[in-house]
């Protein structure tokens, strides 16, 4: 008999009609946070892709072919490699961002690809797990940890899009852009450019 979490439910399809279905027994809030983390990571991957191409274009070079790779590790390495050909202020920013993203990657993979169960002795504690022989894991989580991970992914996205941080001008610039056009890479204000403006 194969292993599987014990928290499955049998129910009729939400859409009505059809046969029975098997779903994980998770609360609406837990499902929301798992979905938010997954959606945030997709946003991060897209932002990293666009940023890598835009930064390479600004530097007058072609983005590394690995930015198109299916492997996220290769895409992240291609982004990090831009630090080798950028001004020191920007290189440090790129390396810090790469490290931040790399530190979140394993938790995100476990959340997105893991099976979900909850601790029988503490029903508020979730467990993401895998029974695969080479890649098995059991990652205890709770709603606070999921929220924190989604927030940290969002911070990485913000720091790619806005390397000089928050300014009141961002409200008008972001809110007036149509959906899907919120990344102002052509106008990006890198630390090196900012330093030059301050000096003049």
Overview of this structure, please?
Helix content is 52%, strand content 14%. By secondary structure, it is α+β, with helices and mostly antiparallel strands. It has a domain at 27-165. Strand 3 and strand 4 form a beta hairpin. The protein is elongated and about 55 Å long.
Primary descriptors:
200 residues; alpha+beta; 6 helices; single chain; 14% strand; 52% helix; three-stranded antiparallel β-sheet; elongated
What's the rounded overall pLDDT mean? 78
DSSP helix fraction: 40-55%
Number of helices: 6
The major pleated sheet works out as: 3 strands, antiparallel
Cα distance spanning the termini: 72 Å
Q: Secondary-structure element order, as H and E? A: EEHHHEEEHHH
Return Rg in Å. 21 Å
How many runs of DSSP E, i.e. beta strands? 5
Uncertain runs are: 175-186, 191-200
Task: Walk across the major sheet and give the strand order.
Answer: 3-4-5
Structural class, from secondary structure content? alpha+beta
In percent, how much strand structure appears in the residues? Answer: 5-15%
Shape: elongated
């Amino acid at each position: 008999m194969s292993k599987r979490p014990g928290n499955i439910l049998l129910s009729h399809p939400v859409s009505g009609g059809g046969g029975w279905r098997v779903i994980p027994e998770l609360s609406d809030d837990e499902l929301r946070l798992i979905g938010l983390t997954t959606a945030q990571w997709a946003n991060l991957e897209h932002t990293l892709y666009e940023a890598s191409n835009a930064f390479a274009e600004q530097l007058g070079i072609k983005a590394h072919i690995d930015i198109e790779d299916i492997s996220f590790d290769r895409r992240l390495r291609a982004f990090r490699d831009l630090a080798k050909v950028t001004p020191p202020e920007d290189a440090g920013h790129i390396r810090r961002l790469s490290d931040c993203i790399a530190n979140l990657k394993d938790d995100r993979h476990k959340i997105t690809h893991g099976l979900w169960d909850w601790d029988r002795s503490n029903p508020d504690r979730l467990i993401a797990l895998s029974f695969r022989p080479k890649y098995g894991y059991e990652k205890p989580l709770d709603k606070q940890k999921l929220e924190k991970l989604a927030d940290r992914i969002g911070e990485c996205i913000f720091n790619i899009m806005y390397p000089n941080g928050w300014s009141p001008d961002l409200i008008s610039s972001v809110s007036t852009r149509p959906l899907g056009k919120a990344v102002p890479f052509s106008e990006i204000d890198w630390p090196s450019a900012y330093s030059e403006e301050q000096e003049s």
